[in-house]
Design goal:
The structure is a single chain. The chain is about 50% helix and about 25% strand. With about 280 residues, the chain is an alpha+beta fold. It folds into two domains: about 80 residues; about 180 residues, Gcn5-related N-acetyltransferase (GNAT) (Aminopeptidase, 3-Layer(aba) Sandwich). The protein has an eight-stranded mixed beta sheet with strand order 1-2-3-4-5-6-8-7, with helices on both faces. Helix 2 packs parallel to helix 5 and helix 3 crosses helix 5. The two termini are about 15 Å apart. Bound molecules: coenzyme A (COA). The site of coenzyme A has 21 residues, from strand 5, helix 6 and helix 7. Coenzyme A binds next to strand 5, helix 6 and helix 7. InterPro entries: Acyl_CoA_acyltransferase, GNAT_dom, Ribosomal_N-acetyltransferase.
Length: about 280
């Protein structure tokens, strides 16, 4: 198993630089908002006894107030992100915590735990593949903004530290090209679900199958789970093929068990038990 901790120093530097950038943007927007408001009041004051009718003053004030409120509102989002980056940086100075999964797939591709430092890359990857993924993934996964991506990856990071999920990035020469993960992990029943998605142009190379195979080693050997499940729609043939290629057993189909938008969808349940994994690995 290739599970190890990586050096946290460059990661920390990156997080601090994200925080600094978000802070500069936030303060910049705040300043622009305040400046617009001050300029509007100044114009009104200067033109108090001028030739322009009062309606112009109302216009100046409206623009000033709008600028102020937009500036304040958007700067709060940036400042919130900055605080989250700083929190992540402080934590990364210690260590990545439990389940810091890492594994080398081949010369080019590597798996490494997904952390808040991946928020920008995560958002860009989802945005780039939005139409491709929208048919298959839940709306919570399809984050709509960078701030949502930061929040989502923070939630996942907390859940990983609590032992509930193992979120992992598939990286090509360091660049995020897909996500696989274990979760939710039910430690009482010693079971978990595997989920996955990948950049459309990176399909067809076995990256997801090989990544899931490495996660299965982790699930059965390190976490000592008894059962791992894959849930996918019958019409998602590529996803079903991953489960079948890995040797999962089709246990059945839950009919109209989930809502996707207006539609009720069926889900196939594929599972692998500890004994089946051990049998396939010659134990
Ligand atoms: C589902 C999804 C992850 C499958 O991706 P994928 O690229 O088909 O899966 P893999 O990376 O395992 O690649 C398998 C292909 O690589 C080939 N391959 C090449 N080398 C391989 C290797 N060493 N091991 C396994 N397969 C290999 C396989 O033969 C297969 O080829 P095919 O596409 O001609 O059938 C992808 O289609 C996706 O992200 N879909 C949208 C999101 C989604 O549906 N997620 C799942 C929700 S349940």
């Amino acid at each position: 198993m290739g599970v190890h901790q990586t050096s946290t120093a460059p990661r920390r530097t990156r997080l601090v630089s994200h925080a600094r950038r978000a802070m500069v943007f936030g303060l910049g927007k705040l300043l622009v908002g305040v400046a617009l408001m001050a300029a509007a009041f100044h114009l009104v004051e200067v033109r108090r006894n001028g030739p322009l009718p009062p309606v112009y003053n109302i216009g100046f004030l409206a623009v000033g107030m709008l600028g102020f409120f937009v500036g304040v509102f958007t700067s709060f989002a940036d400042l919130k992100s900055a605080l989250q980056w700083l929190r992540a940086a402080r934590r990364s100075a210690d260590d990545l915590g439990p389940h810091a999964f890492s594994h080398t797939l081949d010369d080019e591709h590597r798996l490494h735990v997904l952390t808040p430092a991946d928020a920008d890359a995560f958002f860009d990857l989802i945005t780039h593949n939005h139409d491709f993924l929208a048919d298959w993934l839940t709306p919570e996964t399809l984050v709509e903004s960078r701030a949502d991506a930061v929040d989502r990856l923070h939630e996942l990071d907390e859940a990983r530290r609590a032992g509930l999920v193992v979120p992992v990035g598939i990286r090509k020469a360091g660049e995020l090209v897909g996500v696989v993960g274990l979760g939710p992990i039910d430690s009482k029943r010693r079971s978990a679900q595997i989920y996955y998605w990948i950049d459309q142009t990176s399909q067809g190379r076995g990256l997801v199958t090989r990544s899931c195979s490495a996660l299965l080693d982790y699930a059965f050997e390190e976490l000592r789970l008894r059962r791992v499940v894959i849930r996918c729609e019958p019409r998602n043939t590529r996803s079903c093929a991953v489960a079948e290629r890995l040797g999962f057993v089709l246990e059945g189909t839950l009919r109209q068990c989930e809502r996707r938008g207006e539609e009720l969808i069926d889900l196939r349940i594929y599972a692998m038990l500890r004994d089946e994994y051990a049998g396939a690995h010659g134990d």
